[in-house]
What we know:
It contains 3 helices and no strands. It is mainly α. Keywords: Cell cycle, Cell division, Centromere, Chromosome, Coiled coil, Kinetochore, Mitosis. It is found in: Chromosome, Centromere, Kinetochore.
Amino acid sequence: MPIITRESTAVVTEHLGWTPLTLVDDIINSLGELMYGGVESLENMLMSFPPEVLGFKTPAGTIRDTDDSGAPEWTEDEANEIQKGITQLETLWENAIDSNFDKFEIFVMRNIMAIEPELVPWVRLEHHKDLDFGSLPAAPTSDSMEIDSAQPPPARTATNIPRNPPGEPATAR
């Protein structure tokens, strides 16, 4: 199992054009939207049935109110009971999605979107195919850099002092 390193994530990100976590987050967010849409549809469906179909009884000797179309209206207690059940179902589904998709995220990040750290130097992306990284000049050393200690650093003047953009708070320098 590959160890997730900054370098392997950078290679995968550069290759795909987006971070691996973005894919996982988009999948989880899409599932959440579908779940919330399903819960809303279920609530609308339940509220469209006559209360008696769902087991709510009209007390003997009373007549249930009806709306303009003649459909029986829900009492406040009945509507609250449906809403409470819908809220419990939504919470149950949210918890199931959270716990199972945490496992999914770990699996994807470790097994699908990861490159073995020892393979990272061997990965050559398409836009790197004609580059020769071996011919890069060596990094300068402290001995190869010349510092003229006779020249003092330039004095700060009103024109070369860094300023904060308008509206930005002043920061310590």
